[in-house]
């Protein structure tokens, strides 16, 4: 199942199934994570449930549209480049089925149990599982087939953000208690259907809106990245390369040569041959477009960056002697006319190789600077999303937001703390959560709305002195700890079996 014939009916049918699965996953993400935003307004009766979820859905929708793409491709870059663009343009159906199937199954399981769990955690675990299985399939060392530095960066954000949410919400609650003396903030909601009075009610409506918007801006990006993997498989000629940035290819000849030289001298991992072959093809394309052959090394002039402007002089790369292999020379002598799918695969291979060079301690600073400039020049060619993909992600997330929230709302409102949630506790958790999620979304770090807000509620409970219910908190923490190993193992096994 690893290599379908491109454009065959079976290939298109399987990719269409993957498209449906990613939309279902984003829909489930919506109703699984909705409770993090609407729990306080529903539980304090600030808004009726129907109004709360509609408001949350609308804010999620606009959050997705306003978000960037840095989180989307921070996740995509966890996958090995050959899985992103399989040989001969064949769609990576096993990869997509393993990703979506695993993440969706674990999301539904935790939702059914009423345990707040992270959709981001599910996706990241599934991606790492696919990368590990891909390494086994190709006989690579795990250090070569999995970008552990990127994995570590992502997991650090997932690990530290709940701690920041816990501490931040506890401190904000204490500050609120010291400054704002209105007793309505610190009392559980009264019996009956009466909402909190005036400003307290609108404070909670505002924090609900902020968390919903921030959730859309971060989590929406994750589905955008996954949708794009399917879109490229379905319509490779249209979406393999960014139509707005395709003019960056062919590269300037001197940039293409320098890129090849850096990889030849400094990239020594298990994917080196693939990266060198890709760099050679991009160089051949550049030379053919320029109507010349340049066998001699040519340094990147002053480390020119992706905008065409010169970078600082200390980033200029010293001339590296050419050490082309027989394979590279053959590629250089061949035709430079490549399909968009092949170019996409080559760009991902070269970007992955240059990224590994920047992480090596022994590489000179000037070489690292040039490698980063070349990465920045190449990434916009393949890292993009059409407007309709953003709209599809926003629609699935916002529609999912409008159902399925009751189980998690009850857990957050009643079962984390020893007392019922008060307006001040909910507002503290949501204000801190919204700030952390928005910050992470615009700096390219995928974080979990569920983890941050749930930890924030626990922090506000501790800050108020009411304490937490250890049994429920233990269940939540165990689910969090189990998510990564379970999704890694499930996705790896599923990908391996489907690939055979």
Offer a concise description of the structure.
Pfam families: PHO4. By secondary structure, the chain is mostly helical.
Oligomer: single chain
Give the helices and strands as they follow along the chain. HHHHHHHHHHHHHHHHHHHH
Mean of pLDDT? 77
- Taken from the alpha-carbon principal axes, the silhouette is elongated
Write down the domain tally: 2
Fraction of residues in helix:
55-70%
Q: Which structural class do you get from the secondary structure elements?
A: mainly alpha
Beta-strand proportion:
under 5%
What is the number of strand segments? 0
What summary fits the major beta sheet? none
The tally of helices reads: 20
CA-based gyration radius: 25 Å
Gap between N and C termini: 6 Å
Low-confidence stretches: 294-336
Describe this protein's structure.
This protein has helices at 9-43, 49-66, 70-76, 81-84, 93-112, 119-137, 142-145, 148-179, 198-234, 236-239, 253-266, 272-290, 326-332, 340-358, 365-382, 387-401, 406-415, 423-441, 449-464, 470-499. By secondary structure, the chain is an all-alpha fold. The protein has 2 domains: 9-240 and 385-499, no CATH class; 246-382, no CATH class. The longest helix is centred in the middle third of the chain and has 37 residues, at 198-234.
């Amino acid at each position: 199942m690893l290599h379908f014939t491109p454009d065959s009916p079976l290939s298109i049918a399987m990719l269409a199934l993957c498209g449906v699965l990613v939309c279902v996953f984003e829909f489930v993400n919506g109703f699984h994570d909705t409770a993090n935003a609407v729990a306080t307004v529903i539980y304090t009766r600030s808004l009726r449930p129907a109004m709360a979820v509609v408001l949350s859905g609308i804010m999620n929708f606009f959050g997705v549209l306003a978000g960037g793409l840095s989180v989307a491709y921070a996740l995509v870059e966890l996958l090995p480049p050959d899985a992103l663009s399989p040989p001969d343009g064949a769609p990576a159906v096993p990869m997509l089925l393993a990703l979506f199937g695993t993440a969706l199954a674990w999301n539904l399981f935790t939702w059914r149990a009423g345990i707040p769990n992270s959709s981001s955690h599910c996706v990241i675990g599934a991606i790492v599982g696919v990368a590990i299985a891909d390494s086994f399939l190709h006989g690579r060392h795990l250090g070569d087939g999995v970008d552990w530095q990127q994995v570590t960066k992502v997991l650090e954000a997932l690990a530290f953000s709940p701690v920041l949410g816990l501490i931040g919400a506890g401190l904000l609650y204490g500050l609120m208690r010291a400054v704002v003396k209105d007793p309505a903030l610190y009392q559980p909601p009264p019996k009956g259907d009466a909402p909190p009075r005036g400003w307290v009610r609108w404070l909670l409506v505002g924090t609900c809106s902020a968390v919903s918007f921030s959730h859309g801006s971060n989590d929406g990006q994750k589905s955008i990245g996954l949708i794009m993997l399917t879109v490229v498989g379905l319509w490779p000629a249209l979406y393999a390369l960014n139509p707005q940035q395709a003019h960056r290819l062919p590269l300037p000849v001197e940039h293409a040569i320098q890129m090849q030289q850096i990889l030849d001298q400094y990239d020594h991992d298990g994917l080196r041959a693939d990266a060198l072959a890709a760099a050679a093809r991009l160089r051949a394309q550049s030379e053919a477009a320029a109507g010349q052959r340049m066998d001699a090394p040519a340094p990147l002039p002053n480390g020119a960056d992706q905008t065409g402007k010169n970078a600082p002089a200390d980033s200029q790369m010293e001339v590296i002697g050419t050490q082309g292999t027989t394979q590279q020379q053959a590629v250089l002598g061949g035709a430079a006319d490549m399909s968009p799918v092949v170019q996409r695969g080559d760009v991902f291979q070269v970007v992955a190789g240059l990224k590994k060079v920047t992480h090596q301690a022994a590489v000179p600073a000037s070489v690292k600077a040039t490698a980063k400039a070349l990465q920045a020049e190449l990434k916009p060619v393949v890292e993009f999303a059409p407007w309709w993909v953003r709209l599809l992600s926003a629609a699935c997330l916002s529609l999912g937001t409008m159902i399925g929230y009751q189980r998690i709302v009850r857990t957050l409102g009643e079962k984390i703390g020893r007392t019922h949630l008060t307006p001040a506790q909910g507002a503290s958790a949501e204000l801190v959560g919204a700030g952390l999620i928005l910050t992470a979304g615009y700096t390219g770090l995928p974080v979990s709305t569920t983890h941050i807000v749930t930890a924030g509620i626990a922090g506000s409970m501790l800050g108020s002195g009411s304490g937490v219910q250890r049994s429920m908190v233990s269940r939540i923490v165990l689910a969090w700890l189990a998510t990564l190993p379970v999704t890694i193992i499930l996705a790896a096994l599923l990908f391996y079996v489907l690939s055979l």
